[in-house]
Amino acid sequence: MNKIFFTILSLIFVSTASDSNAQEILANKRFQVSFYCLLSIQEKMDCSTFERSFFDNNSGLISQVLDAREADLQVRITNQSRPGNLTRYYIRIKPSDRFEANTLDLPPMDFNNTTDGTLIMSAIEARIRVGFAAFQEIEKSSVGVAGDITISTKSAVSTDPNKPTPGGNPGNWYIEAGTSGTGTTQGQVQSSSLAGSVVVDYFDPKGKFRFQVSPSYSQRVQTIPNATGVDRGSVTNPRIYLKGIYSVSKRWSFALIGLAAGSRGSNLDSYRTVSTGVEYALVPYRTNETQQLMFRIGPEFTVANLEKANERGNLQEQVFAGFAQIAYVNQFIQDRVVFNASAKALTYPGLGAGAYNIYSGSLSINVRATKALVFSGGATFSQQKKSLTYPAAVDYSNPAQVLFITGAAGVNYSYNFGVKLIFGAASKKASDQRWN
Prior knowledge:
Elements: H1 8-11, H2 20-26, E1 31-38, H3 47-57, E2 62-64, E3 73-82, E4 86-95, E5 104-112, H4 117-139, E6 173-186, E7 189-203, E8 209-225, E9 230-247, E10 252-262, E11 268-281, E12 291-306, E13 316-333, E14 337-347, E15 358-368, E16 373-384, E17 410-424, H5 426-431
Parallel strand pairs: 1-2, 1-3
Antiparallel strand pairs: 3-4, 4-5, 6-7, 6-17, 7-8, 8-9, 9-10, 10-11, 11-12, 12-13, 13-14, 14-15, 15-16, 16-17
Helix pairs in contact: 2-4
């Protein structure tokens, strides 16, 4: 058999077909199969019952082995709760080395929680047979010259009254409205803030393209010691953030990101940043993965307008930079608790040997208490030897210059907390961590 390379996720075409096609393909082949079932919600479908029924009903096509290392195909079934009183079932079939093929993730199936368990088991069983038939086709070398394979599946029917309609599909977008508070310490300087933001995210139905727009407004109050006590002032930060993402495969995606913001009251009066880059996901982007690890790299261009000249003597900086970032995501409870951690290096090749480099990191956690209510918290830190936005001279006795401390060199850190309301595809927001 010629060696076959194919990537199942990007080459599945879902159409409506009867299960008899799969039965016919499998008629002349018996696979050794191991079975692993891990369901978080078992009221409607019990793993042990389904396992016995599955192998009894398909005894002429497959035989069960307990040791996965001896199996031709390893079947794994998991599920998760979804908004709208739904449960989503995931089916993964991992082949042995003899197939020289990748793991197959069949299209997930959504069922209303009122659906009879027997109907759920029957539909999942039929879809697994379709996957088995695909591997039979691989062994028969009946796939195309590019290694592509067409998989026909019977659609799962949901009786959910909130099921998205073609005219207005809430499964492809979400709106997040939130408020947050932050606290920052930079040496003896302390600040606190309150912020409000709105995020609108759109996902195309195939999961390739994602677009996000996020306007926000915040006000920060800051104090700094002086000879007689403290000076106090405030900074307002209107900003708008735009992000477009396109995935060329399950591991590679590109992004174009724009940010326009003001920082009125500090030395950094306004700034605009445009960046682009490529992301490689070591753990591919899929809705049923609980952990992801991403590497990102790309260029960035920033225009910063200052109130007072920085140490370079400039009131405006126009600089190119390059960034490299690693990001980790763990959904401790799928669609419910999401932990993010990242580390980033930003370097300015035209400004000397790394004097203005910025090294930063962040940690955050989002806990979805209900379908729409999310609690969030996080912390960030950064380190830089020199600052492009800090003024050359600061008169700490002058309250008007108190807030010029913003952007000082050294090690800075901050923390935040907030409450958010999410409407729409909350589960996609949790699972799609590309460029987050």
